Target: Oxidized purine nucleoside triphosphate hydrolase
Amino acid sequence: MATLQLPPGLEYNGQLVETSNGGVSDWVAYKKVKLYTNAFVILNDAKVLLGYKKRGFGTGLWNGFGGKVDPGETPLQAAVRELEEEAGIEAPLEHCGVLFFVVDGADAAFHIDIFRADEYTGTVSETDEMRPEWFSVQKELLPLTNPQTTADHDHDHAANPQATEEEGPEPETEGLPLPDIPLKQMWADDEFWMPLMFSRRFFVGRADFDADDKMLKWWFAAAPASLS
Ligand SMILES: Nc1nc2c([nH]c(=O)n2[C@H]2C[C@H](O)[C@@H](COP(=O)(O)OP(=O)(O)OP(=O)(O)O)O2)c(=O)[nH]1
Model:
């Protein structure tokens, strides 16, 4: 497999397959890089916990839970802390991707370690910063590039259409239809890497935005095989 040329800001030692790219020709220049995290709890490969950002950067958008890595913390420690602070829960987080995010005119680029977990403990709670809600993973976000995962998902639902609700440990959502992931109220790059996260393929990517949150340029790649 030929070695891929990664955009500035990204490094990865293993094999990668490019999954999407587009936008203008040049990447936005940046001077500094700050470390961030973002964490997703995904139950039965079918529903995901997102938070509605009530204040600060990305207000009005739905996202995973995360924030800055504090001095002396590892990204994993920061991700665990942020998930507890913003959603009130603990989860066995697994590193599943890296997003390099640049906003034209901002003082620093964001290096975001993305984490996922299949389970959690505690009670999902609204906080000052985030209003958490469960969403159903719509078919469009299931990876076409990984037929195994798509087939498994379809098979589960065909065999037992109630499987998601019966197996989910979240009593308040039991039996209720969940809304689809609200892509139109999320960062525009998310639709490119979420399918990779749902298929458990480690991904790296970069997305550049202008000062009005319009996506200017993007590039994503993923490991050829699933994490587990
Ligand atoms: N899904 C997604 N998340 C993004 C993108 N860009 C981006 O910064 N994020 C995430 C990374 C962080 O989880 C979050 C920004 O952090 P934040 O606004 O909560 O951090 P903060 O400065 O308030 O820091 P803190 O007080 O929470 O530590 O947004 C993106 O394009 N897609």
Summary: The domain at 17-23+30-223 is CATH 3.90.79.10 (Nucleoside Triphosphate Pyrophosphohydrolase). The chain has one domain: 17-23+30-223. Residues 145-168 have pLDDT under 50 and may be disordered.
